[in-house]
Amino acid sequence: xxxxxxxxxxxxxxxxxxxxxxxxxxxxxxxxxxxxxxxxxxxxxxxxxxxxxxxxxxxxxxxxxxxxxxxxxxxxxxxxxxxxxxxxxxxxxxxxxxxxxxxxxxxxxxxxxxxxxxxxxxxxxxxxxxxx
Length: 132
What we know:
Blueprint: E1 7-10, H1 15-25, E2 29-36, E3 48-55, E4 58-64, E5 78-83, H2 86-97, E6 101-107, E7 115-119, E8 125-130
Parallel strand pairs: 1-4, 5-8
Antiparallel strand pairs: 2-3, 3-4, 6-7, 7-8
């Protein structure tokens, strides 16, 4: 068996924008590969046929879907991040929530001193937890 990695399908040509946004927010994160559709291929020219990026060492794969689907991302699958400081969790929550939707605003929910859950502007769901 090869690697196992999360796969994100973006609609409306948002994959590259999302990758750039995510990797700009967290250290040790980068876009590692992008293959784009060319002229006369099955996707819109210049959009992402397949790409990989990492966030803190976790590799992700993504594409721009050239087909409009009746489904998108769901909060039942989320990216879970543990933060080391209050400054970090506050900054990430604020940035990821811009244009998104807070499902659980940053707060003490009993199981964590500070926790938040949101869907970002691309529809991807994130859970942020303060470690300390």
